[in-house]
Amino acid sequence: MSVFVEESGSGSPAVVLLHGQGASGVVWDGVRAALAGYRCVAVDLPGHGRSGRLPGYPPHAYAAAIAPALPAGPLTLVGHSLGGMVALALADPALGLDVGAVLVLAMKVTWTEQEASRRADRARRPPDHFPDRSLALRRFAKLAGLGGLGGLGRLGGLSEIGVFSERLASGIAPDGDGWRLSHDPATAADPPVTPRELRALAGRLAAPPHLACGDQDPMVSPDDLALLGHPVTTLPGAGHNVHIEQPQVVAELVRAAVPAPRPAG
């Protein structure tokens, strides 16, 4: 199974960027721009974007698929929501990666029965079919937290819809005489990972993870994220998609978690 990664910059450590459910690596464009001088590796998670699909999507399966696609040497892992869980799994010493720091953003720790039921319903639902490419792009933009094509200027300052459309094309795929979203609905088929399982993942790390959450996040509260057993940085004015809303703030969190990059070679 292939895993798509997109690199920018150079030096060490490499900053690996792991997106959330239904998105792709394009959502990190603003953070990558804010981290000029760092080597950034934006990953399309398995079952998303330009990456292949897996038979199932537990944390260890994501990690095992992604690990061979990452560069050698020291890594800083930055994960948003689902990507935070994947970052914890990738940092497990048993996987053998050289991980120096882990930053987890807005990862949901507890799920109500109603939330878990809605998630399972989405996984069973046939993929939406879009007769028009622009409709598919708009749907992907909304699902990825970009708020539609009109909000794409937050991805690094680009303003032309045509440019943005090509960046967003990672999130859609041909479907007969139309288009569909490229992410695999089965990524939501497994029951949510439990707080106990997430604490166990965090407990295996060589160093405590850095945790952050917006105070306006409707899905994840700082108290929820704190159930991992580590301090949480609360980000004023930020909603769930802080990496899109406040890329400079996320870049500062990365700089605080890792040393300045060393030149390549």
Automatic annotation (TrEMBL):
It holds the Pfam family Abhydrolase_6. This is Alpha/beta hydrolase. InterPro entries: AB_hydrolase_1, AB_hydrolase_fold, AB_hydrolase_sf. Residues 15-252 form the AB hydrolase-1 domain. GO terms for molecular function: hydrolase activity. It comes from Phytohabitans suffuscus. Keywords: Hydrolase. Signal peptide: none annotated. The keyword Transferase does not apply. One of its GO terms (cellular component) is membrane.
